[in-house]
Design goal:
Blueprint (H helix, E strand, L loop, with lengths): L1 H25 L12 H29 L6 H28 L8 H33 L2
Helix pairs in contact: 1-2, 1-4, 2-3, 2-4, 3-4
């Protein structure tokens, strides 16, 4: 199951990063359609990735916290960065996504919303890629 999860997270990372970089090359923004319709498919996938990533990162962080007795280790830092990274991106992602789903929501202007989406689209591939690589590495180390 770790192998499937690892490939899922890496695939999500690659797709989101590639689409973020390539979207300006094929989509012309208008007031009616400021973003590509591909995001309508990717946004729910991103929510799933954040939920799964936060759960896995929490498990990893809890295991590291149980064993932590000495100085800060690389594993401690990695577990905490992934956990709090997924939580941070998740909060901003859900806020931004629900804002798209509710046209009456105007508390955040279009410029601020664009900056929030750029943050999400840049940070989530890094978090998902690191999580996927860790799952695949752990799977490879479990095998003889």
């Amino acid at each position: 199951m770790q192998k499937v999860g690892g490939f899922f997270f890496i695939a999500v990372a690659v797709v989101i990063a590639a689409h973020t970089v390539l979207e300006p090359l094929y989509h012309v923004s208008t007031d009616d359609q400021p973003y590509s319709p591909v995001w309508d498919v990717l946004d729910p996938l991103m929510v799933v990735a954040v939920a799964l990533g936060a759960a896995l990162a929490w498990r990893r962080k809890a295991a590291v916290d149980r064993d932590a007795a000495g100085p800060v280790t690389r594993e401690y830092l990695a577990a905490n960065v992934l956990f709090f990274g997924f939580l941070s991106v998740g909060i901003v992602l859900l806020h931004s996504w629900f804002g798209l789903l509710s046209p009456a929501f105007t508390a955040v202007g279009p410029d601020a919303a664009s900056v929030m989406w750029i943050f999400i689209d840049a940070a989530l591939p890094l978090l998902c890629g690191a999580t996927g690589a860790e799952l695949l590495r752990r799977r490879a180390n479990d095998e003889p």
